[in-house]
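Pinned message: reference record for Phosphatidylserine decarboxylase
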Amino acid sequence: MDAATKSTRAGGSLVLAKRRLGNWMPAKEELAVKFRKRIAQAARERAKRTPMANVVRELADLVQGDTVLRMNLTRAINEAHDVGFELGYGSIDELMAIIDYLVTYAPPFNASVPIATPLNLVLDWPMCMPSGYAVFRDPAFNAQLRRVLSCWCGFLDGPHSRAYLTADEPHGWLSETAREKMGLDQFVCDASQPYWGFESWNAFFTRRLRDGARPVDAPNDASVIVNACEASPYDVSENCQLHDRFWIKSQPYSLREILAGSDMTTVRRLIGGSVYQGYLSAFNYHRWHAPVAGRVREAYNIDGTYYSEIEAEGTDARGLNDSQGYTTAVAARAVIVIECDNEALGVVACVFVGMAEVSSCRIVALPGQRVKKGDEIGFFQYGGSTYCLIFQPGVIRAFEPQPPYRDDVPPLKVNSRLAIANAAQ
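Predicted structure (C-alpha cells):
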C-alpha cells in the first residue's frame, strides 16, 4: 500500500520524499520507477507470444467502451506524466498489457526493496491524479477489477505461484535472510518437504502459527481485549457517529458506511463508541483472531473499491496509507460482529479491509458460532491491508498502544493485550 508523499520543485525537477507503511512497496521513487520499467518491458515481451487473459480483456473492453471511463483514465495517465512521474506506460493499452502480465506474477522476497503489491505500484500515481479519483471509485470498474484480482488470486492458489518459495538468496522466501526477517520458525512448515510443505504462494502467505507462538493474553479475564491482527497501531478515535464526513481530511469513522450490511439496531449500539485501527505488514501473519469471547452475531463481505484514495489529503499526501480511515467506508472488506459473553462489553464490530491487491477477505467464523478469545475468525489472502475494532461507548478504559504511533517498531502481536475494558464481570 502507498503512503504519504511530499513533493516539491527543486531546479525544475520533481523531488519526492515518500513514506510507506507496512513494507509493501519501496520508499524511494527511483526504485519504484526501475520496477515499473522492468515490468513494462516484461509485459511487452509477453504480449508478443501470449493472448491476453479474458478477465483483463474484459477490463480493457469496459474502459474502452465507456466514454467517461476512457476519458478519465487517459487523463489520469497524462496528468501523472505532466507532473513528472515515470510510469512505464503511456496509454490504456500499455497499462492493460502490464495488468495482464501481473495476473501470473509471483512476488520475490526483497528485504530492503519490497514490492509486495506490484499493481499498486503500477497504478501509484494515476490513481491520485485529479481525473483518477473518479476512475477508482467507479462501481463497474471496481467490479471488473475484482474479477482481475480474483484471477491473480487463483494463480497464487496454484503450484505455479511457488517460483520464489525457495531457499535461494536473495529472492527466496525460504532463504536464511527471509526466515530471519519473518521469524519463520514460529510458523507451521517442514524444511524436509518440497517448498517446505506449502502448496502455493497463498498457502505460504496465510501460513499458520505453531501452537503456543501467540498465547492469548489473560484468556479468562473478560476485561482484557486482545489484538485481532498482527498489525501496527494507526489510529484511535472516540465518539464515532452514525453518519460522518469520512471523505474530509480528518477522516472520521462513519458507522453506517463502514457497517453497510449490518442491522441498524446493531449499528446504533456503537454510536458514540471507540474505534481502534491498525495496519498490516507484508512480512507478518495475516490471519484474524477474536478479540473477545462471545457469539458471532453477523459475518459478511462487502464489495467496494481497491485503489481509491481521498482527495482531502491533497496532492502532497498521495497514497492509500494516508487514506486508511476513508477506506473503512469504501473499500472491499469483511465485517464480523461479536455479541460478547460479558454483557458489559456489548457488541464488538471487527472490520477487515482489503486494500490494493487484497481481493479476498475470507471469513471462517459464521453467524451463531461461539468463539473464545483468540480463536481464528478469518484471514486475508495475498496483499496488504488494514483493520479496525469498534466498541460501544463507555466500554474501553484504556488502549494499550498510545500515540504517537511509530512505523519503525515491530507490529503488535496477534492475541496480545490491546485494551482494558470498564466494568467487566
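Pinned by admin. Summary line: The two ends are 40 Å apart (CA to CA).
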